[in-house]
Write a structure and sequence with these properties.
- This protein is mainly β and 68 residues long.
- It has one domain.
- Helix content is 13%, strand content 37%.
- A hairpin with a 5-residue loop joins β2 and β3.
Length: 68
Amino acid sequence: MITLAVNELTKDVETEIIYRILWIDEGNMVAYVIDTESEKALPFLLSIKEISRELIENSINDILPTNR
């Protein structure tokens, strides 16, 4: 099982956009993420299943935060 954390960064392999996880619900079902490179970005909702699947399929890469 993949464990995700608030402030974790992921990078989309295809677009090279870096996303930050802003919030994860208590049930670990959904998360709000934001594009860190866009000045006009708004948070959007993704399912934890989708994020986990993309990490497993290497569609996105996990980037360790600097404070780990």
